[in-house]
Amino acid sequence: xxxxxxxxxxxxxxxxxxxxxxxxxxxxxxxxxxxxxxxxxxxxxxxxxxxxxxxxxxxxxxxxxxxxxxxxxxxxxxxxxxxxxxxxxxxxxxxxxxxxxxxxxxxxxxxxxxxxxxxxxxxxxxxxxxxxxxxxxxxxxxxxxxxxxxxxxxxxxxxxxxxxxxxxxxxxxxxxxxxxxxxxxxxxxxxxxxxxxxxxxxxxxxxxxxxxxxxxxxxxxxxxxxxxxxxxxxxxxxxxxxxxxxxxxxxxxxxxxxxxxxxxxxxxxxxxxxxxxxxxxxxxxxxxxxxxxxxxxxxxxxxxxxxxxxxxxxxxxxxxxxxxxxxxxxxxxxxxxxxxxxxxxxxxxxxxxxxxxxxxxxxxxxxxxxxxxxxxxxxxxxxxxxxxxxxxxxxxxxxxxxxxxxxxxxxxxxxxxxxxxxxxxxxxxxxxxxxxxxxxxxxxxxxxxx
Length: 450
Hints:
Distance between the termini: 62 Å
Largest sheet: 9 strands, mixed
Radius of gyration: 23 Å
Shape: globular
C-alpha cells in the first residue's frame, strides 16, 4: 500500500498569528470592514436576513477540499464519509462526486443516500442494534458491507439473506484502547455498547459463527476507537491489535481477510489553539504499522478503510443566531439567542466549548466574559460558557458559531416545538437552501389528534 503524507489543512490553521480570530472557521472566511464575515463569498449577515435565524451555512468547497485531502493522503484506501455527522441529499452528492463511500447507521440514512443516486455497493452499514427493517433495507438495496456488532445479528442477517446470494460483512472488534475527547464518545474499550471483545473471545466467536454461514461472506474486521481523537498513537495501537487478530484468524481457520476498517473519530479544533488530528501523520504512521505488522505475520496487506465524518464537514459549517436578550444576574452576563440545545445538544451532552463571534456590525467596545445561552426551558441549555464578546452586545445582534457542521443538525430535536434550522450552502458567492427550516405545520402534521 502506498501512503502519501499530506496533512489535512485545518480551517485557517490555528497559530499565534491568527489576528483576525478566524483560525477555526472555513478557509474561505473573510472578515469585512463593517464587522460582517463572508463564507464561500456569502455574507453571513445577509444570509441571516434572507433565510432567518438560526441558520446553518455550509461551505461547499471546504467539504470538497477535505474529501480530496483524505483521498490524497490515503490513495489506495476506501474513504467512507460517516453520514451520522451530517447528511442531506446535497452532502451525499458532494462526497460521491469526490470519490468517497458512505457509512450509514439506519434504514433512513441508507434510503436517503440511495434515492439520491449514491451507489449502494459503496455504502457501509453500521449500528450496535440494527432493526429488522435496517437489515432488510440493506439487503434489498444492495449495501456493500454490513458491520456485524453482535452474535445475535449474525443469525438474524443470515436468515433473511436471499437464497443464492452472499452478503459481505465485517466484524466490529473492541480493541481495548481508550481514546476520544469525552467518556461518552470513547468506543474502543470494554465498558461500552459497541463491538465484540478480543479479550473475552467474543470477536473470535463471531468470526467462527460467520464462517459457518453460507449466505454471509466475511471480508474483514472493523474497529472504531472513539471520537475527537487528537493523536495518532491510539490508531497505531489499534492497527497492531487488529493485524494480530487477523493472523490468528488465518492460523485457526485458514482464512486471510482482505479488508481492515479502522473507523474515524478524527478530531477538529472548535476554538483557537485546540488540537486537530494531523491526517498526513496518521497516513504515514498507520501505513508503516500496517506494512510492518503484516510483514511480521506473513499476511498480505489488507485494503484499508477509514470513516471520517466530523473532520470532513465540521469545520465547513457556521451557525448563525440572533440575540434575543442580554441579562445580568449577579456576576454573570447571559446572552440569550434564538436557538439552543434543540439545534445543538453537544454542549449539554459533552461539555463542548465554542468560540462565538459578533457579526453584522463593527464594535469598539471592550470585551467582557458572557455565557451564550439558548431559548429552551433547561438550565443546561448553554451554547458557549464564559466567552469574550464585545461589551455592547445587545438584542438584535448576530452571533456566528464556527466549527458547526457536524453533530448539530443531525442530533437536533423537537424540544419546545421550536423547529430545526435550515441548512444553506455557500459557494462562489451564491447561497442556496439545502434543507429548509422545519415549520410548525411540519411538526403539527405528525400529531393525529384525539
